[in-house]
Amino acid sequence: MRKSVLVSLFCMGVVAATAQNTPGDRQQFAALGDFKLESGAVIKDCQVGYRVYGQLNGAKTNGILFPSWYGGTSKIIEQLVKPWKAIDTTKYFLIVVDALGDGVTSSPSNSIKQHGADFPAFSIRDMVESQYQLLTTKFGISHLHAVMGISMGGYQAFQWAVSYPDFMSHLIPIVATPQPSSYDLVEWTIMRRIIETDTAFHNGRYTVNPILATGTMYTQLNATTPPNIIKTLPRAGVEGYLKYTENAKVNDWNDTYYQLKALIVHDIAKPYKGSLAEAAKQVKAKMTIIVEKQDHLCNPAPAMEFSKLLPARLIVLDGESGHVGAGNFDDPALLKGIGDELADVQASGVTNQNLFDTIPFIPEHTPQRLAQFAKEPVVSGRIIFLGNSITEMGDWKKVLNDTTVVNRGIGGDISYGVLKRIGDITGRNPSKVFILLGINDIGKDIPEVVIADNYMKIVREIHNKCPQTRIYVQSVLPVNPAMPHFPQHYDKGEHVLVLNELLKDHAADGDYTYVDIFHLFADADGRLKSQYSYEGLHLKPPAYEVWVDYLKKQGYL
Predict the structure, then answer these.
(1) Which of 231, 447, 475, 529 has the highest local Cβ count within 10 Å?
(2) How far apart are CA 521 and CA 515, in angstroms?
(3) CA separation (Å) from 392 to 408, 487, 531?
């Protein structure tokens, strides 16, 4: 039991940090002088701690920055995480940096001129700025290969994305958030009040680091999950665990308190009136965002939502260890996600696809349509319209005046369904394929980045099996909630726009033609024009004539 408790303590960085070097210790320091914070305050004689692994190449472009987490230090990361499991230090120059307030880099506990409660408050943005100065002045680095971090280290990675968007090629925040959720704010505020109201803390003006047992136990409780605690801690061991935790040697509480306040005020969207959509527009680096579904310390919702606003890879872990489980660089899904991002492998979407409802909206209709398709003769070189009910309801042979056109629409189908039946398309070796999918995926709350990734899989499969086929990916159509009949598809207008932008952006990589038909049917408010629809989702026959006429005018038909 004690071993599992100690591992948990290390994972959260609660074991006390030290700035002293020991024989063979890699700990190094860089002096920044008087360091000005975004508040205007100054950290006097600021120094930044760090450890390096590997060699910086001649162009100084192979650097990977790994900031420390809440209460963690570069030494703890070295001992516990061993990041070289995921980062090849024969290829990359790994810089594990100590964040402000961790007891190694300038902190309330180690500052001589501004000790304890006299230390100025700092932010995640200030942590990033100190690291930027370290990289540019100490190493002469003007561009990193990547920034990655766990927990608060991931907070810093998110901040790097908007503070210095051109400075790195890749970003990998792990169990972190671009802005705290309401749950996070409540949890962190409770922790803050536990510290502030404990008389032993004495408003930060103590001479000996106090024992704040409630604060230690509260952090440990939220670092994992109830199932994990029940599995690893028997009832008979609770008393011993609590006693052990109460007496554990922990970080200086002022250091913890200052970093905690930085977490609470963290928000990369602050300069953009709190809009993550606006913040996402600043991001230029490629991203893999890794979250933990059962995270009780950093709610995954904001990071998952942010991934929808970017062409980012999203990986959702689902382990009973919760937040602390992400520090295990033995997890195959975690290692693959990191490796693929660093190697610039094409995004493959969410690892745990079973998190989504991937069953078509009308499951009984799919086998009926597939049986009908199987009866049709296989003839090469024809035009195929592929999609869901919007495609199925189109009388393409009539509107095109072409009896050879093939309709492969299935009502209620989603991108996963098309992937399962793509063999019917490639087996016909069509001359052209017009694809329209996505609204049903959106109705099932599947992230846009996953839908776009499925599109790429569909397109690649067609290209691989039918290299002469020309592929046209058509924009998802608008919806109109004023004509209620399909509530799960309404109020999704923003998601439609995000998906369309992704489909447009991926056209070059996917070697397909993106066709914007959204504008043909949208009114001034971006809603589906009522004259073209029965119920705000599907199209009337005249709309198909407008659609085909546009395709002909563009030279696609």
Answers:
(1) 447
(2) 13
(3) 7, 21, 20
Which amino acid type is present at position 318?
D
From residue 166, give the alpha-carbon distance in Å to each of 157, 171, 234, 282, 389.
13, 11, 50, 10, 43
In sequence order, what are the beta bridge partners of 43?
Answer: 35
pLDDT in tens, 347-392: 444 333 444 566 777 888 999 999 999 999 999 999 999 999 999 9
State residue 38's pLDDT score.
Answer: 96
Distance in angstroms (rounded) separating the CA atoms of residues 380 and 370: 18
**CATH number of domain containing 418:** 3.40.50.1110
DSSP 412: T
**Residue 171, C-beta contacts closer than 8 angstroms, at least 6 positions apart:** 146, 147, 148, 157, 158, 160, 161, 283, 285, 286, 287, 288
**Is residue 372 domain-shared with residue 324, that is, in the same domain?**
no
Distance CA 484, CA 370 (A): 30
More confident residue, 55 or 450: 55
Region 141-154 average pLDDT: 95
CA–CA distance from 300 to each of 198, 274, 303, 349, 529 (Å)? 30, 18, 6, 16, 36
Cα separation, 453 vs 315, in Å, equals: 13
Tally of residues, the chain: 557
Most distant CA atoms of the chain, gap in Å: 88
The backbone torsions φ and ψ at residue 348, rounded to the nearest 5 degrees and listed phi first, read -115, 20
Are residues 54 and 171 both part of a single domain?
yes
- What sections of 233-375 are H helices per DSSP? 238-246, 253-265, 276-280, 301-308, 332-342, 365-375
Domain that holds residue 38: 2-183+259-350
CATH number of domain containing 158: 3.40.50.1820
Best CA proximity match to 521, nearest among 511, 530, 534, 512: 530
Q: Write b or e for each residue in 138-155: b if 16 or more Cβ atoms lie within 10 A of its Cβ, otherwise e.
A: bbebeebbbbbbbbbbbb
